[in-house]
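ok trying again, last paste got cut off:
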Amino acid sequence: MKNLGYILLKYWVKVGLYCYYGKIRMVGKEHIPKNKPVLFLPNHQSALMEVLLLAVDCDRKPWFLTRSDVFKKPTLKRLFAYLQMIPIYRIRDGRDSLKKNDAVFERCAELFAKNEAILMFPEANHNIKRRVRPLSKGFTRILFGTLDKYPELDIQLVPVGLNYKDSKAFPDRIAIIFGKPIAVKGLYQKEDIHASTNVVKEAVATSLKTLTTHIDDEANYETIIAQLEAFGVNFLKPREVNEVYKRLETRKTKVSDRPKSGFVGTIFRFIFTLLNLPLVLGWWLWMKPKVWEPEFTATLRFGYAFLASPLYYFLIFIVVSLVFTPFIGALAVLGVFGFNWVYVKLA
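nice, full thing came through this time. structure:
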């Protein structure tokens, strides 16, 4: 029954994600090992959206190592446990809390021994900027601890690049690119943990920097992004973006050169806003002020739309049915949903 509930929830969320995003482009799923222990290692830009996107579409049923502070509320703790999310403790949670990670690492080893898949974010934090940040050594501790206990395991690391058109905007598009797997056994030398840690981190970081846009120059980050946008790059194709970035002559392209949205797009957005005015007002006046970090914008917007949209469609049906007939009410719902679908997919 638990598996059935998980499957139903998974496909319900998947439908919601495909309605929310104009396009979800999946590349490289053939690289994901089917019958081996796997550690997915994605870059991290958009809070919980990446957990949802990978949970519903990675062809495995991964366990998620998630920062412990999101487990503080009992209701969420039960939900996250149901979704196979495991708390991981950081120094900011208190030095004493770090001791709890020993049990977490032990559990990860047992999961790998059963050929399960685990997902964790090796950057150990999220940031909306288009760059791969320095990787934490936390994931290597889990790997090496597992191999010490189960030296025969062939654990495969799968770097994952998540690429958004604009993670704060709606509608948005995303490309999820799975890299070629990296076998841990060939990189681990038990007698030299420090060197092994650096080798594994470098292998993962190098792969991630080809799977997502990587702006290495932090000092000129905003200028470079403006230049890339002026060139009209497609951020869903990171290899091409990175090639353009390499050829850029810094500061020659002005921010004012950015492409402007067209008249037709403005009209479509106006109609969308008008048709969904109660939802839009609820977002702007109630939910958006609750966004405490820009990285959580998409997460809260999706959660709000995921829960509120069905209620709004039901309200349309009731109101129109009372004024006209249930048939006309159903047509009204289909009309609004159909326009919203077209707007999201074409925007």
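cool. The longest helix spans residues 297-323. The chain is about 50% helix and 10% strand.
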